[in-house]
Amino acid sequence: MVALPDPEPLNELIESLTKLPGVGKRSARRMAYHLLQYDREGAKQIHDALDHALNDLVHCKMCNSFSQEEICAICQSPRRDHSLLCVVETPSDLNMIEASHGYHGLYYVLMGKLSPLDGVGAQTINFERLLKRVFEYPVKEVILATNFTAEGETTAHYLGTVLKEQNIKVSRIARGIPSGSELEYVDAGTIAWALNDRRSG
Amino acid sequence: MVALPDPEPLNELIESLTKLPGVGKRSARRMAYHLLQYDREGAKQIHDALDHALNDLVHCKMCNSFSQEEICAICQSPRRDHSLLCVVETPSDLNMIEASHGYHGLYYVLMGKLSPLDGVGAQTINFERLLKRVFEYPVKEVILATNFTAEGETTAHYLGTVLKEQNIKVSRIARGIPSGSELEYVDAGTIAWALNDRRSG
Ligand SMILES: [Zn+2]
Ligand SMILES: [Zn+2]
């Protein structure tokens, strides 16, 4: 007697859910059962949201963050200080800095960080887009606000070297943020302080 | 300066992913960024799989498990012992019992368990469908293979009482399965032994 497999659409759903970061086969199975049995409405919502996000979101041509327009609202805003460019790893980090109310310049979102051990090199992060951004719309200063993790520090060091070679003023947010932690987990006051206390790179 | 929100399709995606069991706002955000930035192909797969699963899967009319046909392959099979009915909580439990190769009868999948503290009562679990199943296609014995957790035991006790009132022979799989654990986490040999050593209820 051979074990009969789950029906194909169920297997397909379980398999697809393992594409989510941190979700293994067992969690994916529970998620699939839950959606199909108790929350078909939620399943429909995820389906439609994926549709909209995949079709309607692009990367802002200036800051590289997700946007519905070619140039996002922050990059377009005349009320921001266009001479300052703050480089962060993710859109979450951008949100955290905005919430600190300590910064009024523009951003560049790397959408990742250098992680040589995982094979994430300068090609993957696409630093050239950042350099192009800085040449097209010159700024007075680039503030490196990558996380104070090993990868974030490597990224900041790499970017600092490359930008300074181009005679661009570079600073690093102050190490007021606890070493080894990530921006997302730090209170807004500390972030504001760290931005203010930035050192010339 | 007011913090600018994420673009709407991104918010929508993050919000929808919190519908997944065990996924909070922060995990949902990480999942959304990951899919949009690094795995759009995976996002497409989830989208399509949800489409297929929502449209193509129904509950088997006999065993209540997910199926592409009105009556699933197990319930249709002439090689199974149609006089035995094993009641389990989820399709995962059914798969685990199949993998033990210790059982050749049919199944009924409750798709849940009684959990009075969480407000999950006999209405939610729809025990009437199980009773109807047993009256329409009479069996010699119903084997209760719900988990040996508080909820599984409550469910087994409730079902045992109801079925015995209808003069149906009821048994409970042997408590060879470690108390407090769930079928999914037990090795196939123990499951086979527990099925074999079942006690008359
Ligand atoms: Zn932008
Ligand atoms: Zn069936």
UniProtKB/TrEMBL annotation, chains A, B:
A zinc finger (C4-type) spans 60-75. SUPFAM superfamilies: Recombination protein RecR. One of its GO terms (biological process) is DNA recombination. Keywords: DNA damage, DNA recombination, DNA repair, Metal-binding, Zinc, Zinc-finger. GO terms for molecular function: DNA binding; zinc ion binding. Belongs to the RecR family. NCBIfam families: recR (TIGR00615). This is Recombination protein RecR. The gene is recR.
